[in-house]
Amino acid sequence: MRFSKAWAIGAGLLLLTCKGEDTPSVEPKLQWVSNTVVATDDQRDSLVLVEFRYEDGDGDVGLEPSDTAYPFAYGDPYFYNLQVRYWHCVDGQWVRPLNPLQPSDTLDLSERLPNLMPTGKHKSIKGNLTLRLPAKPYLYEGDSVRYECRLVDRALNQSPWILSDLVVLRLR
Fold first, then answer.
1. Cβ proximity of 56 and 23 under 8 Å
2. How far apart are CA 123 and CA 171, in angstroms?
3. Which residue, 63, 109, 142, 153, is most buried by CB atoms nearer than 10 A?
4. pLDDT in tens, 113-144
């Protein structure tokens, strides 16, 4: 029996595509979408709305209020599952300012996301999240900031750190 070249190539492509479905990654992913500065009525910058896209193959993103034991207890490394670092520009250099409430530590604006795992058979999730971050925490007076962020799931898989675009604030 003779097979044509076209059939052989088609069969090869079929084998490649049928070999297996893409297995969703259990490591969460983040992708920056946008930054929007929100001003008050007197034109002072008040908030920065930071939007990003997230994805997790097994859907184990977010914590329950009852998740209070190590490593999710207050003060433990994964209490905050959306870790946000605050950066500002000083004399042309990007630095992480010190937290005035804990001068031995840098300023973080991390969040604790609630459980986002869907019910049902398919657990893979993706969507957009928008953080509302203070434009000038602790009365910061600079005009250029950035945010660095990563997502940690309940299995402690971590997305790579992502860095926002430059946010230019009005000085007032």
1. no
2. 45
3. 153
4. 999 998 888 889 999 999 999 888 877 767 88
